[in-house]
């Protein structure tokens, strides 16, 4: 398969020094300022002002510029220069003291004013800044001239120190964005005695194109980047996470004086142009503004296939792609890099695989929550809706056995996987070219639930959460992410048999029916499962009104499930079902948070009472044969029988675990988990006894809707059961109020916690 090179150009925040993942500055509009700032940030010379901001139009103080200057010189001995005072207005306790002290003692590039002060918090002027940098380059007043600062500004222009900058008078305050260009120029300027200044503290590589980083190319290992020096590709390890905004640009790789790890990358802006493709031909590129750029046969092109001749792959530059063009000394285009495409309406791409440009100022949503590009994971599907200027990101996927494709294997419009037929768009069909039948593949879905891509499961796979809804000779699962229902032959591997009585064994997988499981299909076509461990139960109280669990907000797409009793099948409920009052943290059984840190999955213990069938329950127990011991003697096991009586008749449930009720033939108000009544086996005790909440009179009822218990109005369940023991009958409420005066109320939980009346005994 061809190597794919991704150039992602959405600006995010880039902090100084090594980072676990790259980030970009989001507030720099100027390309030249942004590339300079990102280049310096890769070496730890500059950083942002907080969050994703660089504040390019803000001014720099003399202390701030001094720090940047000595860091550009390779300064690192902070502790050696932080314990003394040189200027009376630069105390040793100030954050900038070691940098100012080093600038005086180690580099001799700054001086105080006539009063002996440094004035650290005064904005630095353009004239002061170039004077400092000229000293760093080895120039003296004899080389420059005695008319400061005009001679210094003139010298800076002569040697190209201000190339790419806007015009400044010597007394103008220097902005942060323009200071970044000035310092970038310093690094790439010849010293008075020869050699680029950057080589004083660093080692440089050959001029190269930064083709990809480990974050933009899934074929690269963590920390790796791919460089092209001419047509030669190399993979190097970086000690810092290079900004994705630098991918696709040509520049100078920067290394430590010793060792082979890449420290940073300085963008080369000489003869660089940017454009957006409207159309291409074998000898020209027409840009979005209607301009036509001639391309000679000798031009090279860096696209998904690598560094190739432009004539061999010009068609890979798709409409909407932002590209970089480099001209030679004669003005001809010698190199085009890019291949990244802005997703259009209804278009999708796979992050880290496809070439995606993020439109600045757009919104990125994942699972309904706003995120940054940094929070998009490899293999997430990105869909752009231009009318909304919004990117929708989906991490929905499933691993299934690839069975068939029509009408062609290489470009199918439908495929069969996991016994299910999926429609495949023309855009998604390209992912099936190298896939093989009777092997597992992982399907990736967009935010609408459509198949957007597919990969060999060895490349991206794993189990996904699903509800095991049915189990027998065939299993039925429902994916938690998008509701897709699949049926197939189950594998019971990993789930040992347990004794079900009468010498019969049954797989413990049956205990997972109705619960969340990890799901995938194997190469033999079997549905395979894993238990889904509940975790993170100490997040805090649930506030259904605010939509929070502790300090975590609900995701707009939160899924909430209720576990009526431990180990029981789950019932999906809504935020409204949680009620109007705060629920104790003890009700939290499990939470998961999305990329934005919001709660996307919440499992609670019994909070609605709706997961049970209520009625009059009795429990008995008997000893039943369970096999023989080694001597041939019959071994017995306790079998518990529950009888649940309602106005529709009596249901019976048998279990080998004590449900916890007192053994008696007397019928008492209680409930059994509804889902358990339909099962042949369950490991968890399924029943509980209801405690009497209160005794009221007929006048305490408010028609058929509720009853007053003290000062609390308690709702009646729609299927509330009313039983008269004296006549052994279930009654309607009107019938009961007409003939009886005393009403024992049984609620599923405390009325103060939103309890509902489930059973009423009348006398």
TrEMBL record:
<feature type="domain" description="SLH">
    <location>
        <begin position="20"/>
        <end position="82"/>
    </location>
</feature>
<dbReference type="InterPro" id="IPR001119">
    <property type="entry name" value="SLH_dom"/>
</dbReference>
<keyword id="KW-0732">Signal</keyword>
<feature type="domain" description="SLH">
    <location>
        <begin position="83"/>
        <end position="147"/>
    </location>
</feature>
<keyword id="KW-0677">Repeat</keyword>
<feature type="signal peptide">
    <location>
        <begin position="1"/>
        <end position="23"/>
    </location>
</feature>
<protein>
    <submittedName>
        <fullName>S-layer homology domain-containing protein</fullName>
    </submittedName>
</protein>
<dbReference type="Pfam" id="PF00395">
    <property type="entry name" value="SLH"/>
</dbReference>
């Amino acid at each position: 398969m061809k190597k794919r090179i991704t150039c992602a150009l959405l600006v995010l925040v880039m902090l100084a020094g090594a980072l676990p993942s790259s980030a970009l500055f989001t507030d720099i509009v100027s390309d030249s300022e942004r590339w300079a700032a990102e280049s310096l940030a890769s070496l730890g010379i500059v950083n942002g002002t907080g969050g994703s901001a660089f504040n390019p139009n803000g001014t720099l103080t003399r202390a701030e510029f001094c720090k940047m200057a000595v860091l550009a010189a390779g300064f690192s001995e902070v502790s050696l220069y932080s314990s003394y005072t040189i200027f009376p207005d630069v105390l040793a306790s100030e954050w900038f003291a070691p940098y100012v002290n080093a600038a005086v003692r180690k580099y001799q590039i700054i001086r105080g004013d006539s009063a002996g002060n440094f004035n650290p918090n005064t904005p630095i002027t353009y004239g002061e800044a170039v004077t400092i940098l000229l000293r760093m380059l080895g120039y003296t007043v004899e080389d420059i001239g005695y008319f400061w600062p005009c001679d210094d500004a003139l010298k800076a222009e002569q040697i190209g120190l201000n190339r790419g900058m806007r015009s400044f008078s010597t007394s103008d305050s220097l902005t942060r964005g323009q200071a970044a260009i000035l310092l970038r120029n310093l690094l790439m300027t010849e010293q008075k005695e020869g050699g680029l200044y950057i080589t004083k503290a660093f080692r440089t590589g050959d001029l190269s194109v930064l083709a990809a980083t480990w974050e933009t190319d899934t074929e690269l290992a963590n920390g790796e980047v791919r460089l092209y020096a001419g047509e030669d590709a190399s993979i190097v390890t970086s000690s810092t996470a290079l900004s994705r905004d630098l991918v696709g640009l040509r520049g100078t790789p920067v290394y430590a004086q010793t060792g082979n790890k890449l420290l940073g990358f300085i963008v080369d802006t000489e003869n660089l142009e940017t454009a957006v493709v409207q159309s291409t031909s074998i000898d020209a590129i027409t840009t979005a503004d209607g301009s036509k750029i001639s391309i000679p046969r000798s031009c090279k092109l860096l696209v998904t296939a690598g560094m190739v001749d432009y004539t061999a792959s010009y068609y890979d530059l798709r409409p909407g792609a932002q590209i970089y063009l480099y001209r030679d000394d004669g003005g001809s285009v010698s190199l085009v890099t890019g291949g990244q495409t802005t997703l259009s309406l209804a278009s999708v791409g796979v992050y880290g695989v496809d070439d995606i440009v993020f439109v600045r100022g757009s919104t990125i949503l994942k699972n309904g929550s706003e995120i940054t590009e940094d929070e998009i994971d490899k293999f997430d599907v990105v869909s752009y809706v231009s009318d909304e200027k919004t990117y929708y990101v989906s991490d929905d996927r499933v691993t299934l056995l690839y069975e068939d494709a029509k009408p062609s294997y290489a470009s199918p419009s439908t495929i069969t996987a996991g016994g299910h037929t999926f429609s495949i768009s023309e855009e998604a069909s390209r992912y099936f070219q190298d896939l093989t039948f009777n092997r597992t593949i992982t399907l990736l879905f967009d935010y609408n639930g459509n198949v957007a891509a597919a990969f060999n499961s060895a490349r991206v796979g794993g189990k996904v959460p699903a509800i095991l809804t049915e189990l027998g000779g065939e299993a039925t699962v429902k994916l938690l992410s998008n509701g897709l229902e699949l049926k197939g032959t189950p594998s019971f591997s990993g789930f040992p048999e347990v004794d079900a009585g009468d010498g019969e064994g049954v797989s413990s997988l049956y205990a997972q029916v109705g619960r969340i499981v990890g799901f995938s299909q194997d190469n033999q076509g079997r549905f395979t499962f894993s238990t889904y461990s509940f975790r993170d139960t100490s997040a805090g109280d649930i506030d259904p009104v605010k939509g929070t669990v502790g300090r975590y907000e609900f995701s707009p797409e939160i899924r909430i499930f209720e576990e009526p009793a431990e180990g029981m099948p789950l019932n999906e409920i809504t935020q409204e079902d949680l009620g109007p009052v705060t629920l104790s943290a003890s009700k939290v059984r499990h939470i998961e948070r999305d990329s934005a840190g919001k709660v996307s999955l919440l499992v609670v213990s019994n909070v609605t009472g709706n997961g049970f069938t209520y009625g009059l329950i009795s429990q008995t127990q008997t000893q039943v044969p369970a096999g023989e011991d080694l001597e041939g003697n019959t071994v017995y096991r306790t079998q518990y029988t529950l009888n649940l009586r309602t106005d529709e008749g009596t249901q019976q449930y048998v279990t080998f675990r004590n449900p916890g009720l007192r053994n008696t033939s007397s019928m008492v108000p209680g409930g059994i988990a509804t889902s358990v009544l339909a099962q042949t086996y369950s490991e968890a005790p399924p029943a509980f006894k209801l405690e009497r909440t209160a005794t009221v009179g007929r006048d305490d009822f408010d028609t058929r809707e509720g009853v007053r218990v003290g000062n609390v109005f308690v709702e009646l369940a729609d299927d509330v059961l009313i039983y008269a023991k004296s006549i052994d009958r279930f009654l309607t409420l009107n019938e009961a109020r007409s003939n009886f005066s005393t009403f024992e109320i049984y609620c599923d939980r405390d009325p103060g916690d939103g309890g509902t009346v489930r059973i009423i005994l009348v006398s």
